[in-house]
Amino acid sequence: MICPRCEKETVELMSVSPINGAWEVYICTTCNYSWRSIESDIITKSECYDKRFKIDAETIPSLETIPPVTLCSKQRSSAKTIDT
Question: Which residues fall within 8 angstroms of residue 34, CB to CB, at 6 or more apart?
Fold first, then answer.
């Protein structure tokens, strides 16, 4: 199976429906895109997936990461803590 987003063959079965045969969830281990088998072709098929959202798998290692959320000093001083 080919990932609709990065077009790599690194797709794994992630989960199955508790109701036999209702759906499966797949995940690409290259770009972390996931989808259910019952989604429309624009989500599940590479040739139908919106080209604006495609990812070149070779560029993934150089993509910037999302910085961690931090509180500004005003938020830190007013944050409530729970003593245990």
Answer: 14, 25, 26, 27, 28
